[in-house]
Amino acid sequence: MSRHHIEKVTCPSCHHEGDFELWDSINTALDPEMKEKVLNQSIFLYTCPSCGETFCLNYLILYHQMEDLIMIYLVSESEVAKTYDLFYGEHDNVVRTEVFYLPERQ
Description:
By secondary structure, this protein is α+β, with helices and mostly antiparallel strands. Helix content is about 15%, strand content about 35%. The strands form 2 sheets. It has a 4-stranded mixed sheet with strand order 1-2-5-6, with no helix packed on it. It has a two-stranded antiparallel sheet with strand order 3-4.
């Protein structure tokens, strides 16, 4: 199931407050059009309706591409260790784990 909600964001340029559709999880089997939006990163972009400035919002998201057996939990670099512990704890029997770091955005 794909889930999303609206959050208020403040433009860093003009400080206008606007609404942003934030995705908590995406299942491409149910919402196939979201695959391209993730690949081109448009789901992370917000354009201020007041000044027209576009900026990227980094947020946690669970991406599930069931048809290809891919699941990605995207977190900021500062959350990687905590998230790894949450999923795997002290277990040494992890079959396959790949950690990719996204740079923190200022």
